[in-house]
Amino acid sequence: MSHRDPPGIIAPHIPADAYRRAEATGRPVVIVTTDPTKAGLSWPRLLYPFAIAGAVVVGGWGLVVALCWLLDTAAHTATVIAGAAGPVSVGGISLKLFGSKR
After folding, report:
1. Which pLDDT band holds residue 101 (cuts at 50, 70, 90)?
2. Rounded to whole angstroms, how far apart are CA atoms 85 and 102?
3. Buried-exposed string 71-94: b where 16+ CB fall within 10 A, e elsewhere
4. DSSP secondary structure string for all residues of 21-72
5. Which among 9, 17, 49, 98 would be 20 to 30 A from 1, CA to CA?
6. How far apart are CA 43 and CA 50, in angstroms?
7. Dihedral of CA 67/70/75/78: which sign?
8. For the CA atoms of 65, 66, 72, 77, what is the dihedral angle to 10 degrees?
């Protein structure tokens, strides 16, 4: 008797002696498996969309915070430059942007 591997995907899970006995006698091998599909929704199926949506929301808030910080820094920079420059004059008309409180 020559050695042959059992055919199919489930066949390697059949014990070798049961397969060879069934092959020699011609009897069928009955394989009982459980159904892998479950009723209802699985957690990964629900978790992935919520994780993606949460990452988008957190990224959006981070973008808003970064934009606010950038505008605040630009406003402070403009204030410091205008305060240090003194009066601004264009065509003989001078305008003092920030005057002293005295």
Report:
1. low
2. 18
3. eeeeeeeeeeeeeeeeeeeeeeee
4. HHHHH-PPPP--------SS--HHHHHHHHHHHHHHHHHHHHHHHHHHHHHH
5. 9
6. 11
7. negative
8. 170
Residue for token pair 């049961």: 18
Residue whose structure tokens are 């209802």: 40
Q: How far apart are CA 67 and CA 64, in angstroms?
A: 5
- Residue 87 makes CB contacts below 8 A (sequence gap 6+) with 94, 95, 96, 97
Q: Which residue has the tokens 């005057």?
A: 99
